[in-house]
Amino acid sequence: MSGNQIRIFDTTLRDGEQAPGCSMTITEKLRVAKALAELKVDVIEAGFPAASPGDFDSVKAIADQNHGPVICGLARCNPGDIEKVYEAVKSADRHRIHVFVATSAIHREHKLKMAKEEIIKSAVGAIKMARELVDDVEFSPEDASRTELSYLAEVVSAAIEAGATTVNIPDTVGYTVPAEFDRLFRYLKEHVARIDDIVLSVHCHNDLGMAVANSLAAVIAGARQIECTINGIGERAGNCSLEEAVMAIKTRAEFFDVETGIETNRLYPTSRLVSSITGMHTPRNKAIVGENAFAHEAGIHQHGMLQHASTYEIMRPEDVGLSRSNLVLGKHSGRHAFRGRIADLGFELDEFEMNRAFQEFKKLADLKKDIYDGDLEAIIMSADNASSGPWTLKALEVQTHTDQPATAAVTLISEDSKEVVESAHGDGPVAAAFLALEKATGVELVLRNFELHSASIGEDAQGEVTVNVEHEGESYRGRGTSVDIVEAGCRACLEVMNRILRRKKYGRSGPGKPTPEQATI
Ligand code: KIV
Ligand code: ZN
Predict the structure, then answer these.
(1) Spacing, Cα 55 to ligand 2 middle (Å)
(2) 391-506, what's its fold?
(3) Are 295 and 285 in contact (CB under 8 A)?
(4) Does ligand 1 have an atom closer than 6 angstroms to the CB of 140?
(5) Residue in 77, 106, 142 to alter for ligand 1 test, most ligand atoms within 8 A of Cβ
(6) Spatial distance between the Cα atoms of 71 and 67, rounded to a whole number of angstroms
(7) Which ligand is closest to the CA of 233, given by its number?
(8) Whole-prediction pTM value?
(9) Is-contact 403 381, C-beta < 8 A?
(10) Residue 103: per-residue pLDDT
(11) Closest Cα to residue 480, out of 497, 500, 457?
């Protein structure tokens, strides 16, 4: 790689997935990993294998798919964690072990209860062990931005001597500011002897809204790897947003004088995929991928845009994978137009998936006149869930009254064609329908959150519902789509109920490649 090449290390599946409400199933993680490979990220941090058997399985499944990027797993500085990462990532042609230990005084005293020398010893031991297993080892001094500079330089020197090939500097709590972070990187450059022998990396959290700015300051000061997530998802206020950092570097290439290998026209589809899977929808005004990022409302702006797009537009929507055409499909659109639009949106479907999506599209076109991109995305995302029984929703009937409880009746069909009809009363139609579903499936859920999002525009837009529920002390997330929002909620709820029933029948996937059934659990 040339000296002005910035490696993009995506941690959506590790730091991003760690965020509350962002957990993904193995199938979803595999799908995101494939999209990240198509986006051409350099490294995918696929998870923290020692965290749980499920994490181990998903990192291994991603490594087995071997799509091209380096597959990395996170480990604390102990042999058990390091061995687990190695076992999980070794099948990928290119793999990395990422070890970390906290170095700031506050972490040393209150979390680790370890002295400075002990921490260095533990980091050095872990890096040496990892280097015996793989050639590519990354080390992170957690909370680096709040660590005494001279001690941080000592830790980084020891890590390089021990064999780390990448040293990452995290702003773990999103505390630093660009000018200060610039000073930190320049200090390391000056005080760590072999720093030019390794790749210097940056990892920022967004607590003060400066994760992207701090990451870019680090790049100016010499960092050559940015750790980031799609849509900036991550713990608390999130991580550095991949799409923002990448587009800043591309749009201001003359200023930064560096480049990434990212296929920027895959940014928008990848963002939509992650928001649809996690249910974490991006705000309308989110830079690069928000719905309004390229919308010009004010008359004076529209006038300027008509004269010349560059008057008010610093990036072209098509550069991030957003088509200007805003083509609308309808009842009379044929398979050819449908297929073309799906490809424009960045989805790759096999013949079976394409046929099913086309049938769903035709059904939807009977219900609503105009089919927008958001509707097509919703169809494709919900096709994933439709295949996962044992129960399918056949019919739903709800009655609401202003001053009486609502009633709902559901008809479900099981895999072995058994039909069950149940009804219930509730404070509102959603509560009544959920109760009826609980009676029909025998699965009781505690609803923690119900979010409704419009998939496209207009009164007849499809509603996308994401539910967060609990069952026997575990949290689950489900999503469902329909032009009827109560039905969308039922589909979301039934998705979770089906997952729980499958888990009870098949158990959790054990180590190794999941079977197709296990992969959806
Ligand atoms: O924020 C952080 O410090 C991390 C490290 C494990 C890199 O996520
Ligand atoms: Zn982090």
Answers:
(1) 17
(2) Double Stranded RNA Binding Domain (3.30.160)
(3) no
(4) yes
(5) 142
(6) 9
(7) 2
(8) 0.86
(9) no
(10) 98
(11) 497
Beta bridge partners of 234: none
- By most ligand atoms within 8 Å of CB, the mutation choice from 48, 172, 200, 207 for ligand 1 is 172
CB neighbours (10 Å) of residue 426? 18
Centre of ligand 2 from the C-alpha of residue 203, in Å: 7
CA of residue 208 to ligand 2 center, whole Å = 14
Beta 419-426 vs 404-414: how paired, if at all? antiparallel
348: part of which helix (H) or strand (E)?
Answer: none
Among candidates 13, 40, 9, 39, which has minimal Cα distance to 26?
13
Q: Which residues make Cβ contacts (< 8 Å) with residue 4, sequence separation at least 6?
A: 257, 258, 259
Q: What is the pLDDT of residues 9-66, one digit of tens each?
A: 999 999 999 888 888 989 899 999 999 999 999 999 999 999 999 999 999 999 999 8
Domain edges within the chain:
7-283, 299-385, 391-506
Q: How far is CA 30 from its chain centroid?
A: 11
Cβ 147 under 6 angstroms from ligand 1: no
The response to whether residue 479 sits with its C-beta less than 6 Å from ligand 1 reads no
CATH dotted code for 299-385: 1.10.238
d(CA 44, CA 8): 9
Q: Residue with the nearest Cα to atom 8 of ligand 1?
A: 15
Share of the chain above pLDDT 70, in %: 93
Cα separations (Å) of 9 from 50, 59, 92, 171, 221? 20, 15, 16, 15, 18
Tell whether ligand 1 has an atom less than 6 A from the beta carbon of residue 170. yes
User: 21 — phi, psi (to 5°)?
Assistant: 80, 0
Q: Give residue 347's pLDDT band: very low, low, confident or very high (50, 70, 90).
A: confident
Domain 7-283 = CATH 3.20.20.70 = yes
Any idea which residue has 């029948």 for tokens? 505
| Contact indicator for 379, 354 with CB cutoff of 8 Å | no
Residues 400 and 426: beta-carbon distance below 8 Å = no
Ligand 1 near 103 CB (within 6 A): no
| Phi-psi sector, 288: left (phi>0), alpha (psi -120 to 50), beta | left
Distance of CA 100 from the midpoint of ligand 2 (Å):
11
The CA distance from 86 to 131, in Å, is: 11
73 lines ligand 1 (CB under 6 A): no
